[in-house]
Amino acid sequence: MAGFLTEQNMMWRDRAKAVADKVVRPLAAKYDRLQEYPWEIKDALAQAGLMGVWIPKEYGGSGGGVLDLCLCVEELSKACGGVGVLYAVNALGSFPLLVGGTHAQKSRYLPAIATGEKLISFGLSEKFAGSDAASLHARAVKDGDHWVLNGEKKWNTNGGAADLYTVFAVSDSNSKSRRISAFLVEKGTPGFRIGKVEDKMGIRCVPVVELHFENCRVPAKNLLGDTPGHGFKHAMQTLDRARPGVAAQGLGLAAGALEFATVYAARREQFGSPIISFQMIQAMLADMATRVEAARHLIYAAAKAVDEQAPNVSKLAAMCKLFATDTAMQVTTDAVQIFGGYGYMKDYPIEKYMRDAKITQIYEGTNQVQRLVVARSLIKEGLNLKYLLDYIPKETQQGVNDPDSLARKAAAPPETATA
Ligand code: CAA
């Protein structure tokens, strides 16, 4: 994509690639096996100045954008999908602060996140509120100069490792559109504890946990944006910015698996020839590469649109998340196929790509939800396209919908019409 990326974009991409190749790739299998947070990898990312790429300079970051974030996530995910999300989830956690926080809240929390000294996570989902995010049950009740939180959060990525949590809770159960608020909850706040730690199929180096709140008193100054009732909007605006990052994780996984499949197919011999010389393998690789490249273009375009605050970024963000993560699943599955029996074995690197890819179709909105977002957008856009109806013939049928029969029907008394 020469010409599309600026010098700055490429600088971040190359920096992430250096960490991915030198530090992440050699450790990926170890942390997948151990299912432990790889602090040494986080430290390497922090040392390379990568932890605050998307945070404005005013708040201690590097002043890059969502496109820079995506380029870094792509490179890291090529080496390890778990590290891709470990990195991207700090952006997900800090976006609510960026879109809805006050200057005081941003100044207080973002600088330590930008250096990597502190980690942050995003607490929206619950056991019974996944795709239907607005139906959450955690409660926040105002009590003097505090809010008291009670309830649970599910599938909190980075939980336990993170120092700060953006937590969404019902602050006004009587309101329809201002029901939910977001709170900045610090690790160690009395009444807040980590619950079940999940044992996962993939992305095993990053913890996914339950969060429990029992009469947890959060200072009123930690209500995001200082005004209650904007939580759901802030969550949706956050996801518009974060979904290209998940798409980039899918892209990195697909691109990384494609690289492995290509070099393996060139080495593996069957029937007296490297399998890459067989047309069936070539067709697979060609289809995989085409999807990867298409995903890359869509993600970069969507990320740029987010950075430029273009209208209707929700649709583009959903499209790239949907396409790139479906691509990740398909390409990583095909890569395992190319590796054959060896691909299914844990001492080969490829099955991990397939396991890591699956979750990208599920979190930050299932791909069914992404299709819903895209379709809702199309329906809205369709309202401005009514002039096209002039070009579509309108059929009539006598006795059904021809104007004369409709007029007769309308004029007829009800008894006659039903007789
Ligand atoms: N930007 C700003 N506001 C938005 C918005 C957007 N993109 N989308 C919706 N809103 C506003 C609407 O304008 C509306 O506002 P009013 O009440 O003032 O009119 C309000 O939000 C409600 O909108 P909808 O009626 O469209 O909401 P809905 O209940 O139908 O839900 C949904 C829409 C798209 C399905 C949404 O619930 C959704 O995105 N669900 C998926 C949840 C999700 O992605 N969870 C991810 C959890 S985080 C995670 O997975 C991370 C991880 O582990 C790494």
| Low-pLDDT segments | none
N-C termini distance: 69 Å
Structural class estimated from helices and strands: alpha+beta
Total of helices:
12
User: How are the strands of the largest sheet arranged?
Assistant: 2-3-7-6
Structural shape: globular
Small molecules bound in the structure, each named once: acetoacetyl-coenzyme A
**How does the major sheet shape up?**
4 strands, antiparallel
Overall mean pLDDT: 96
How many β-strands, per DSSP?
9
Q: Which radius of gyration do the C-alpha atoms yield? A: 25 Å
**Helix share of residues?**
40-55%
Order of helices and strands: HHHHHEEEEEEEHEEHHHHHH
State the assembly state of the protein chains. Answer: single chain
Q: Layout of SSEs?
A:
Blueprint: H1 7-34, H2 39-47, H3 66-79, H4 81-100, H5 103-115, E1 120-123, E2 139-143, E3 146-157, E4 164-170, E5 180-186, E6 192-197, E7 208-219, H6 231-267, E8 269-270, E9 273-274, H7 279-307, H8 313-339, H9 350-360, H10 367-382, H11 403-411, H12 414-418
Parallel strand pairs: 1-4
Antiparallel strand pairs: 2-3, 3-7, 4-5, 6-7, 8-9
Helix pairs in contact: 1-3, 3-4, 3-6, 3-7, 4-5, 4-6, 6-7, 6-8, 6-9, 7-8, 8-9, 8-10
